[in-house]
Amino acid sequence: MAGKKRPKAATPVPKRRPAALGNVAQPTVERILERAQDVLVSRGYAKFTMRSVAEAADISPGNLAYHYRTKQDLLRAVIGNMVAKYTHQFEALLADSEQPFVQELEDFVRWILIDSATEYTVRTFRELWAISLHDQIICREVDDMYDLLMSYVAELLQRFRPNASAQAIRESIQLLALITEGTAVLYGTRRERAVSHERIIEIVTQVLDARLP
Q: How many domains are contained in the chain?
């Protein structure tokens, strides 16, 4: 069964996406959001200011304020942009009908666990976690981001593993999310552990494949 190719399926759409995503295609807005995340990663939230982002995006503070009135609005848009980028990547990894599902699953797990241990991703999420402890709006946006991404992946998997129960898929994806965030903590700043990162990737792939018959 693992070696069989699957029929092409329509691309599912998350139930909710942040409103900011409607402007992502605009070059200026896209540059702002990319540079804003760079500032968050390189300087931390304490130095994440409208002026610092405007300088990084090579625009005037007034131009930035035209698109995003406050720092909180800007950060919410950054999170929305992250959702858009992750969903596009997940679709590319899981919606190729020419590959056996087990290979796509392995590629998906490998990509997300490797990405979660990169310095850029680790710094991004650790900053968001810290902000969420003090800002209820950003906390809700981060929680919604996790729910959206898990829902999106679950919809993709349900189409390609119709024999698996919806509950098993939801449990598997939430387990993967827990492991992904744990990877950022355990391997994000120290790659050498008693169990290698590569071995964790192998184990996770085996567990998910076994749970999704």
A: 1
Neighbours of 86 (CB within 10 A): 17
How high is the pLDDT of residue 96? 63
Q: Rounded to whole angstroms, how far apart are CA atoms 158 and 81?
A: 25
The answer as to whether 43 is a domain residue is no
Furthest C-alpha separation in the chain: 58
Closest CA to 117 of 35, 43, 190, 195: 190
By residue count, the chain amounts to: 213
Three-point CA angle 15, 18, 24, nearest 5°: 120
Domain containing 178 equals 79-211
The Cα–Cα gap between 66 and 142 comes to 24
Contact between residue 181 and residue 115 where contact means Cβ atoms under 8 Å apart = no
pLDDT at 158: 85
pLDDT value of position 2? 38
Given a cut of 50, the residues of the chain with pLDDT beneath it are 1-25
